[in-house]
Design a protein that fits this description.
The structure is a single chain. The protein has about 80 residues and is mainly alpha-helical. It has a domain of about 35 residues. It is about 60% helix and about 0% strand. It is built from four helices and no strands. The longest helix is centred in the middle third of the chain and has 15 residues. The radius of gyration is 28 Å and the shape is elongated. About 0% of the residues are buried.
């Protein structure tokens, strides 16, 4: 078992209000473990996006549409990757 140091007045106040430090620390740890996030790889994200777009009926823009958009962006000095 590990021990920690805590200011005496803080410790006394916690005791006065019936707070069990060990239990509270365990609760904090459990909450932190529950909040752990998991990251997805680029491949998993790409696959999810692809599936979502397929379900929604998404079709990539034709070369003609991309060229028209590119011309409009140049005309209005807008920079967006296609």
């Amino acid at each position: 078992m590990q021990t920690i140091q805590i200011k005496e007045d803080l410790y006394q106040n916690l005791l006065k209000y019936g707070i069990n430090i060990e239990n509270e620390l365990e609760k904090i740890l459990n909450n932190l473990l529950k909040q752990r996030t998991y990251t997805l790889s680029k491949e998993e994200i790409a696959k999810t996006v692809e599936n979502s777009q397929r379900i929604e009926g998404y079709e990539p823009a034709s070369k003609e549409v991309k060229n028209r958009v590119k011309q409009l962006m140049e005309k209005h000095n807008v920079k967006v990757s296609l």
